[in-house]
Amino acid sequence: MLALIALIFTAPAHAHLTPNSEVSLDFGRETVTGDAIIPLGEFDYARGAKLKLDRAGQPAEDFRPYLAVRIGAETDGRPWKVALGPVRVGYDAGPPDLRFALTLTPPPGVNPRKLTLRWNPVIDSVANHFVLVLARSDFRGGLVSHDPQMLGGLQPASRTLSIDRGDASIWRGFGSAIGLGMHHIAEGHDHLLFLMTLLLPAPLLALGGRWGGYGGWRHTLRGLFRVVTAFTIGHSLTLIGGAAFGWRLPARPVECGIALSILISSIHAWRPLFPRREVFVAGGFGLIHGMAFATVIGAFGLEPLDKGVSILGFNLGIEIVQLLVVACTMPALVLLAPTRFYPPLRVAGAWLAGIAASAWLVERVFDVKFVLAEAIDAALGYAPWIVAMLTVFAVAVSLGDRRNRLRPQGR
């Protein structure tokens, strides 16, 4: 049984490849919503009749009455209201299955976080059928991620499941949203590479179509602050719009736009394309990056208040990691920029970023697996160590230059 549960639980959510049913639940403040998947072959076997489909490949009859009498919920003997959405047939990588949404509404005064779920479709007729029940999201319970929690399993001998999500707290959801934002941006190598590439020329001055001398630490800090602030404003706008108001762009163009933003920034780090206009470029491309961020929160279907808090927490998590990256990178930039080592370092960084962006662009435009892109993505996982070694090198160079300046002439 444990092996069966593990097999089901590790199957991708978007491709139902097992002959068992799945019920994914979202716990809100007043209701419990969710989606159910029932393998079509198992459904036909349980009914003893093959499902009739229309020309569009969808059920030719309404099966909600059939399912409604077999699905229920209660708390201390008090029944909940059950509403089912239209029953559709889904066609993914595996065999076709039935899919429908459900809404469970408790009686007045009943805690929606404690219930007993009753589920009879298929398992009331098929002896070896299994139903996996998952908590997909529970903001006030601290579940804000794309990794659902397993609540339990149902079988013909056990068709009810007691669920207790504990006490609700908006602060638990807020903390989880911060953690999700930090995790997402920390693993989003393309987002961080764009920001770091844009920071490479920050300490320098553009002279005659080339990057010239060191602009000083005040110039560097001012440039860093402007770029990070503009990027933050840009991605925050589209993050809020996408998650709260449903602004949408197809995922593939967004991902291609992110790779393109890195490529353009890498060229700018090599030769100034938009000197003194980095703030506008960072803000503009931040809008594209924000659309990618919005898909994370927007997919949870949270209630308005919870969604607002989740957006705030998620964005705060992104900013925490961004500021940590800037804080860790800034000492090396400031210390190395006045030295002879910085020009080759900047050019090398620009070329590496350009190669990474080009590899990602090929992979995303043509929708293929590219070995070079995967290798680069794996290598960027060691970026913290690279930055640490670069900082140590910068400190050593700075101390060496200082000793040379203090050394008396002729010795």
List the secondary-structure elements in sequence, H or E: HEEHHEEEEEEEEEHHEEHHHHHHH
Distance between the termini: 80 Å
Helical proportion?
Answer: 40-55%
Number of strands: 13
The low-confidence runs, each spanning 5 or more residues with pLDDT under 50, are 1-14
Helix tally equals 12
Q: What is the mean predicted local confidence, pLDDT?
A: 89
Radius of gyration over all CA atoms, rounded: 27 Å
* Morphology call: elongated
Oligomer: single chain
> How can the largest sheet be summarized?
7 strands, mixed
> What fraction of the residues are assigned to beta strands by DSSP?
15-25%
Structural class: alpha+beta
Could you describe the 3D structure shown?
It is a single chain. Helix 6 packs antiparallel against helix 9 (304-336) and helix 9 packs parallel to helix 12 (383-406). Helix content is 51%, strand content 17%. It has helices at 2-9, 40-47, 64-68, 170-187, 189-199, 217-245, 251-270, 278-298, 304-336, 342-366, 371-379, 383-406, and strands spanning 21-27, 32-39, 71-75, 78-79, 81-84, 88-90, 97-105, 114-119, 131-137, 149-154, 160-164, 204-207, 210-214. The protein has 411 residues and is of the alpha+beta class. The N and C termini lie far apart (80 Å). It is elongated, with a radius of gyration of 27 Å. Strand 12 (204-207) and strand 13 form a beta hairpin.
